[in-house]
Design the sequence.
């Protein structure tokens, strides 16, 4: 997993205000010799590469990757030199990142205009440095490790960042006013397999020059790894929520038996379900608190995230899912009481498949962690059928970065768990209020099921603080080693009132 604090710290440095330079104009990013560009050429490039053995990318001098985190933070891009800053007519700005530390292999970035692509030339002069940055060797192997995107989102004349592409096939986005949290990945291969995970990489990007006033920015990417290649198209629209439309095709060098689409990577350390395990002044620590799914039968499922003692994998079988995503439903400062990390401003990310995705599973991987430094949550769609060697898989989906507004029925807004006065584990599940909630809660029934152990009869009562109902029950595991719990709010006739709550219990 990529260390989370690198990008967070780098964003803080790059977010510094632009200061006017004395003594003349600033020379920004420069473009190289143009070459013809056609979208069909990208697909043929990826398809052709997949028929050839994998060639590892060239890397920068070792001295650049031997630096530590603080040293890497001491070199940063001068935003006055951003792409399109000089012309001032484009609605977007593009900044670049230096190589080094965790990013040994530079990526090539081209700008597309008028049927031609021109590479952004590497220039160490576009970066500012502090006196802590050492004198490292410079040769032709150097290049940019990625880029970030900015637009006028809140204040005219102020270009605020909204997306970052850097490292393997990772990218991040935010809605206006949010800060970076979870990451997306272009592709997942063999996550949690005994043989080890493979991390495909975006090796090249093509950024289409937008026309004045355009709401969208279009970016193409070439993916490469020992097992496959791929071509991607991202149509990106920033705003109160960030929308990214993804169209991709992956070409298999070998049979791909464990592939992940719409992949999300996040962090969950603790909340009210496992707060007792951590001595911390904060109420909770997580980028996201639950996996939300709307399956092909239009059933809305909510699975609170966990930080288990041992690696655990959950697979939710489905056909043609309506959508899934990692949500951050805790959106109040009091949910965390953290003045620095500001977890209440982290985004949710919802994936909406386009077309038929067939049979497969929404897969959730939860990795034990004792701190908030490393990502430990992975969620993705795993197709049931492998991608055979020599064949390809085309897929499309839409991404929504921002506040959680997906699903139907009463939403689960919090889950609490702990020992009660009697033997057993008491669960309290709070739901948000909604128009379908009757004033008389005696009409509402709580139904709870478990695959092992026993559960008490559920009670439903009004939560005067949230305005919604709370479902309570006690779970007694007995000798069980694992139990899958399911809870529902129903009317007397059995019809559903809210999201289906799912939970995996394992011994402490």
Sequence:
């Amino acid at each position: 997993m990529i260390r989370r604090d690198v990008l967070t710290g780098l964003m803080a440095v790059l977010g510094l205000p632009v200061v006017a330079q004395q003594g003349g104009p600033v020379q920004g990013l420069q473009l190289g010799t143009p070459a013809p560009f056609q979208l069909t050429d990208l697909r043929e490039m990826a398809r052709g590469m997949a028929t050839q053995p994998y060639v590892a990318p060239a890397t920068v001098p070792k001295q650049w990757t031997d630096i530590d985190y603080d040293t890497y933070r001491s070199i940063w891009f001068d935003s006055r030199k951003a792409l399109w800053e000089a012309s001032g007519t484009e609605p977007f700005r593009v900044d670049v990142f230096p190589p080094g530390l965790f990013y040994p292999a530079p990526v090539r970035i081209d700008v597309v205009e008028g049927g031609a692509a021109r590479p952004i030339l590497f220039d160490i002069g576009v970066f500012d440095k502090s006196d802590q940055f050492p004198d490292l060797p410079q040769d032709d192997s150097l290049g940019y490790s990625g880029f970030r995107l900015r637009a006028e989102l809140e204040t005219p004349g102020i270009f605020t960042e909204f997306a970052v592409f850097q490292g393997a096939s990772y990218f991040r986005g935010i809605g206006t006013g949010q800060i970076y949290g979870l990451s997306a990945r272009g592709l997942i291969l063999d996550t949690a397999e005994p043989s080890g995970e493979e991390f495909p990489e975006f090796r090249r990007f093509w950024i289409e020059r937008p026309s004045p006033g355009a709401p969208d920015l279009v970016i193409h990417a070439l993916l490469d790894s020992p097992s496959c290649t791929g071509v991607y198209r991202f149509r990106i629209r920033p705003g109160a929520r960030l929308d990214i439309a993804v169209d991709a095709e992956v070409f298999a060098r070998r049979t791909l038996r464990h592939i992940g689409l719409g992949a999300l990577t996040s962090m969950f350390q603790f909340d009210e379900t496992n707060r007792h395990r951590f001595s911390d002044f904060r109420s909770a620590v997580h980028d996201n608190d639950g996996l939300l799914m709307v399956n092909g039968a239009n059933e809305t499922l909510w699975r609170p995230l966990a930080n288990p003692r041992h690696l655990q994998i959950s697979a939710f079988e489905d056909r043609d899912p309506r959508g899934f995503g990692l949500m951050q439903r805790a959106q109040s400062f009091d949910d965390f009481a953290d003045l620095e990390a500001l977890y209440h401003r982290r985004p949710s990310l919802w994936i909406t498949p386009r077309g038929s995705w067939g049979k497969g599973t929404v897969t959730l991987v939860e990795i034990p962690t004792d701190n908030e430094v490393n990502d430990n949550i992975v969620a993705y769609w795993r197709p049931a059928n492998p991608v055979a060697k020599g064949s390809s898989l085309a897929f499309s989906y839409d991404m929504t970065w921002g506040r959680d507004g997906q699903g139907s029925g009463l939403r689960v807004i919090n889950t609490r768990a702990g020992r009660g006065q009697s033997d057993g584990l008491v669960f309290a599940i709070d739901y948000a209020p909604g128009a379908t909630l009757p004033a008389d809660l005696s009409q509402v029934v709580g139904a709870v099921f478990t695959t092992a152990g026993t559960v008490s009869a559920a009670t439903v009562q009004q939560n005067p603080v949230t305005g919604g109902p709370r479902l309570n029950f006690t779970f007694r595991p007995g000798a069980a080693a694992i139990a899958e719990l399911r809870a529902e709010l129903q009317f007397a006739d059995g019809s559903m009132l809210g999201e289906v709550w799912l939970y995996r219990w394992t011994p402490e």
In short: Confidence is low (pLDDT under 50) at residues 1-23. The longest strand covers residues 242-252. The chain has four helices and 34 strands.
